[in-house]
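seq as requested:
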Amino acid sequence: MAHNTIITGIDVGTDKCVTLIASVNEDRSLQVMGVSAVPSRGMRKSQIIDLEKVLETITESLDGAERMAGLEVKSAYVSVSGTHIKSQNSKGVVAVASPNQEVTNSDVERVIEAARAISLSSDKEIIHVIPKAYKVDSQDGIKDPVGMTGVRLESEAHIITGMSTALRNLEKCIQDLGITVIDFVFSGISAGGVVLSETEKELGVAVIDIGAGSTSICAYVEGSLEYSGSIPIGARHITQDIALGCRVSLDTAERIKVDLSNEKMKGLTPHAGESKADFSKRRKKADEIKLSQYENSDSDEVLSKKTVTEGIMLPRMQEIFGLIGDVLKEEHLLKDIPAGLVITGGGAMTLQISEVAKRELNLPARIGTPTKLDGLVRDIHSPIYANSIGLLHYGLKHGQGDTVSNFSLGSLFSGFSSMGKFSEKISSLFKSLLP
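struct tokens:
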């Protein structure tokens, strides 16, 4: 009986929880089978503040994706972000063990373990150990030393750490659903894996994944990951500013932000033969935001688009990129990323955000759209889902997932979320057969 490998990614964010399920094709491409995105509850600034609500959120998202895919998930890759994420670069040195002095996979594993041996506080743990480059005797800059001859093998690795309590709480929520966490993946790495080109990494680039509650940063220099971290500010702060500045609810503020971001916001020009008075009226009307179209009220209050965008949204975006610039400057990376910034995540959809980034940091900037996938992808080919899609590619690269047969009784009845519903379906079926 033929078997397929299934990869599942769960992205529990401040704003939404996304679950993607994909099968691995024979040509090593991914076929999306299940998609589910639900509003998050119990999260703040990318960290859990209410375990019960987060468990309910993940359950709802996972159930939706499983029903769509027609199978039951056993394991998953889970994204992590937030200000508890830190990184450092470490070196490891070992002697080549082979008598003929040829570097083997065993030597590579030992030198990575040596680089992994860093001093950590008791509340921290390692999430990723990513080799940057190897050095065999006096030859450095080697990407793959296996098969080369030498006596001494060195490795420089990029190590990403996170708060143990944050990771264990998230793991508890996943495991309570009977799901094994294969790996935690920092959102900057997963998103960067599907929005960056190899050329950009070689030149030097920073991926900026703007979530609702925090913004993840990963900087690549000469093809290797040099810095990973996060700042405690995201797209929801823009929404909150609109709500406070315009005295509207958060839901209304979010809809206003989305609508403004979807507009072209081009400057108006007079029509041929149009009087100044008529042009002035048309320009004033085009600048209006009527609150009655967002709220169930007879209010005739009108907001100015220019005031909202330039007076409220722009200062917050400038603050976000000012903080990003401070981080890159502190790490001495501004001059090492000539390819600039690739902005992704839900916040990347905010009006004119790439232009703000260019002005604030004096670097090139573009919006990062994730790699295209096959299958049920009509609504997910967007920067909003870069992290979620990146989890699938991370799983494909690391070769772990669930193995399922092409036909199983479990998939036949997967549409029934509980035995109670299953019994009701069977009972209904028999009743329909009775005379």
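The radius of gyration is 25 Å.
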